[in-house]
Amino acid sequence: MTAAAELMDYDEVIERFDPVLGLEVHVELSTSTKMFCGCPVVFGAEPNTQVCPTCLGLPGALPVVNAKGIEAAIRIGLALNCEIAEWCRFARKNYFYPDMPKNFQTSQYDEPIAFNGWLDVELEDGTVVRVDIERAHMEEDTGKSLHVGGSTGRIHGAEHSLLDYNRAGVPLIEIVTKPITGTGARAPEVARAYVTALRDLLRALEVSDVRMDQGSVRCDANVSLMAKDATEFGTRTETKNVNSLRSVERAVRFEMTRQAAVLAEGGTIRLETRHFDESTGSTSSGRPKETSEDYRYFPEPDLVPIAPSREWVEELRKTLPEMPAARRKRIQVEWNLTDLELRDLLNVGAVDVIAATVDAGASPAEARAWWVSHLAQEANTRGVELADLPITPAQVADVIKLVAAGTLTNKLARSVVEGVLAGEGEPVEVVEKRGLKVVSDDSALIVAVDEALAGQPDVLEKIRSGKVAAAGAIVGAVMKATKGQADAKRVRELILERANA
Amino acid sequence: MSELTRMTAAELAAKIQAKEVSAVEVTQAHLDRIADVDPAVHAFLHVSTDSALAQARAVDEDVAAGNQPASPLAGVPLALKDVVTMQGAPTTVGSRMLEGWEPPYDATITTRMLEAGIVILGKTNMDEFAMGSSTENSAYGPTHNPWDLDRIPGGSGGGSSAALASFEAALAIGTDTGGSIRQPGAVTGTVGVKPTYGGVSRYGLVAFSSSLDQAGPCARTVMDAALLHEVIGGHDPLDATSINEPVPPVVQAVREGAIGDLRGVKIGVVKEFSGEGYDPGVMVSFNEAVEQLRVLGAEIVEISCPHFKYALSAYYLIAPSECSSNLARFDAMRYGIRVGDNGERSAEEVMSLTREAGFGAEVKRRIMIGTYALSSGYYDAYYGSAQKVRTLIKRDFDAAYEKVDVLVSPTTPTTAFPIGERADNPMAMYLADLCTIPASMAGHPAMSVPSKLSGIDGLPVGLQIMAPALQETRMYRVAAAYEVARNESDGGPLISRVPELEVAR
């Protein structure tokens, strides 16, 4: 390991330099099959089981384009306000690497399917930054290498490497921004907000499962600094595979402070790729880019050009969902939320589950109450996202409906939710199994009341003599006898009725 | 030699259906012939005796059961170029790199032939990765021309053409990138057809140059080639460049052509394909063939295709560029040979040592040329310019086909040259494909049919017939008419004049 990099104080960085960002985001599409063959796209399968002659690059095998992949690419392009190419081709990007079966990646080069777009990104305080999109293009993923025996997990120093080609050929869309300038001190925040907004957009489009932790969204962050009086961009570095939203922000911030320190010392920034270390929040030098390979791009001769008709593009435009930003505005009005309340919901990732609960028939206020209080706590305890709790919005809506119908009290409802979370089945099944129904059948209650009164004749006397408050003792006995499943108000009414009968 | 090996594919299939002979007998006769003469010819890299006999038995069972034949070629033995995958046998592509590699899947054309009841005898020798015009670039030694064992059988498909000319197989499959079906056909006195690009699936053909490679039928008669063409042709969803159109009715076109009437047909003679570098013996044979076409009623027109003279240069940029990328996958990681893996060396070092040992000189030369031509800074000057030339060649063809129905030329400028003569002179070797490359660059169909022997060295000469994309019927019709007239005037098929080969045992 090299010595820890010198860093400049962040405020000083901003005083002396303007940061310039360029973000490249790779998105794995959640198509059912790979981009150029019929192998299934699944995460976590046994290594080298989701493969065929084509995605293994066996001699003689040929690619055929997945139409769903093209459809997803066009929809992403449209959602990013891009122009869609009338005619474009795939290209071969040639370089040798053992996890790439053909030793070329089928990608797009100077003819991307979508180009010249933008995405509006909202920061925490509501400021909106427009990020210009250079292009979105289609390509295939590589296999995965597992380097065994080295200290860094990289190929250098490894004793041997294991290769898994299950991921080889999975459809990817690479989305590249134009240089993002003028963001000053907020550059790291803008980077994070952009990736967040893009992730939300892709989720709304239902084209990817957008799991950064599983690598289905991967971000490369290009960062450079220009001195306040400079007229040209500085030399950039490209920090690869930054795999969480928080890391995007940290990586950009780290590079700004590192580069500023180098420049302030009179040094120069090397055009290179860098690796981000999650544990230290720092980046380290990777492969120099000046000597990087010449990819010898040329049009892929095994595939025919793609010429999406304007009619098809317009059909696909009609399939675009409500954009996340517009949806947030609508929800704020419909749910009657303050800015702060909306932000809280967004921060805990509760908007989608609440919306789904509302769609399933619950009132926004009730849905919000359940998810934000009880369930958020549960998610926190379990260390998972709200959406990953083993309870669905529909099930929460069912519970809310049972309370509204008087079948459950709020206390019983919490027990039902506990049951669902414990895997005991649907809410009604839990009610059944745990015997949680409110006892509203008077005849059963009357028996219990009569028994309780008979068991405490002194209390009965007091009630008869007009000391109504004494009924409390009988209520307690009845509730105990019915295991808390009786409606206390009704029990009190019945006690007074029966005592004076 | 068994008479069965002298018969055409059509005759054999008819006899099998008529139960005059069994498919097993036919197959066995050819296997015996291979055992007899292949030690001298070396057409085969692998003979699949057991699977061939099993396929033949299945045909016989079908016949015995009174079932309709799977195709008009059921039971006919075929020699498969070693660039096409077939399970149960190695696919080496004539390269050390893939020595012993058994593909886990069948090429689409292999599947179609097996379904048609064609018996696949084995895999034939070829220039390594189909790069060459003599089969001398095979890592497994050269194939010898049955007309003169000291001469080359053409290339890259010299194994397939020699198998036909030595009566080891009635049919063969070749692949043609710049002439690898047609030129071997010409120098062995056999018929070789390169279909329209996209007319026959490339799925399962080990790629040399993806935008040019095309598999096609090889046979001793035009009719046999047409019958095989209809078996292997047609759309394949596994090949994105395959044309979604029915196979042209080439068998019908052969029947029409065989009537011998070419009145109303306009034939263009490509002016640029003559002069320096063309053997006088080849030109005499070619001119005689053109005269015969005129006698058959065709109108003969001279056509100039001014950009054809750039075709060879452009081809030697495009094909190497694509091959440099296509052959990158041979890296010792997943299949094929692995050299120098001593547990110490890195993956890059093992890759490098393997490619050094696994590829022959011509393959390396082309990978280097192609890598250079695609490099940034050179791309526009080389690959880009070559693609422009390709467009100009297509325009020359378009203009020509406004005036004529088909074009003709000699298939190759010379007859079979002696083994070793051009081995150290790549440029001389490349000139063998001078006349065949333009149709490849345009993606058009073209075929070679035997004309008369060269009066100078007594070796076969080929007549090339070219047609517009998907217009195979035109060229088959002309070829069939010419074949009939040629055989009548020459006292029988050219192939009957191949010298007897010495029998090994």
Q: What is the CATH superfamily classification of chain B? A: Amidase signature (AS) domain
The CATH topology of chain B corresponds to Amidase signature (AS) enzymes
- The helix content of chain A, as a percent range, equals 25-40%
Overall number of structural domains of chain A: 3
Radius of gyration of chain A: 31 Å
Unreliable residue runs of chain B? none
Secondary-structure blueprint:
The complex is a heterodimer of chains A (501) and B (505).
Chain A: H1 10-16, E1 17-28, H2 67-79, E2 83-84, E3 91-94, E4 104-107, E5 114-122, E6 128-140, E7 144-148, E8 160-164, E9 171-177, H3 187-205, E10 217-227, E11 237-242, H4 245-264, E12 272-277, E13 282-288, E14 298-299, H5 310-318, H6 324-334, H7 339-347, H8 351-359, H9 364-382, H10 393-404, H11 410-421, H12 427-434, H13 442-455, H14 457-464, H15 471-481, H16 488-499
Chain B: H1 9-17, H2 23-41, E1 44-47, H3 49-64, E2 77-81, H4 108-115, E3 119-124, H5 158-165, E4 171-176, H6 182-188, E5 191-194, E6 214-219, H7 222-232, H8 250-257, E7 266-270, H9 280-295, E8 299-303, H10 311-326, H11 347-358, H12 361-373, H13 380-403, E9 406-410, H14 426-430, H15 437-442, E10 446-450, E11 462-466, H16 472-490
Parallel strand pairs in B: 2-3, 2-4, 7-8, 7-9
Antiparallel strand pairs in B: 1-3, 4-6, 5-6, 5-10, 9-11, 10-11
Question: What does this entry look like structurally?
Answer:
The complex is a heterodimer of chains A (501) and B (505). Chain A is of the alpha+beta class and 501 residues long. Chain A folds into three domains: 10-312, no CATH class; 322-434, no CATH class; 442-499, Arc Repressor Mutant, subunit A (Orthogonal Bundle), CATH 1.10.10. Helix content of chain A is 39%, strand content 19%. Chain A has 16 helices and 14 strands. A nine-stranded mixed beta sheet of chain A has the order 2-5-6-9-1-10-11-12-13. The longest helix of chain A has 20 residues, at 245-264. Chain B has a single domain, classed as Amidase signature (AS) enzymes. Chain B contains 16 helices and eleven strands. Chain B starts with 8 loop residues before the first helix and ends in a 15-residue tail after the last helix. Chains A and B meet through loops of A and helix 10 and helix 11 of B.
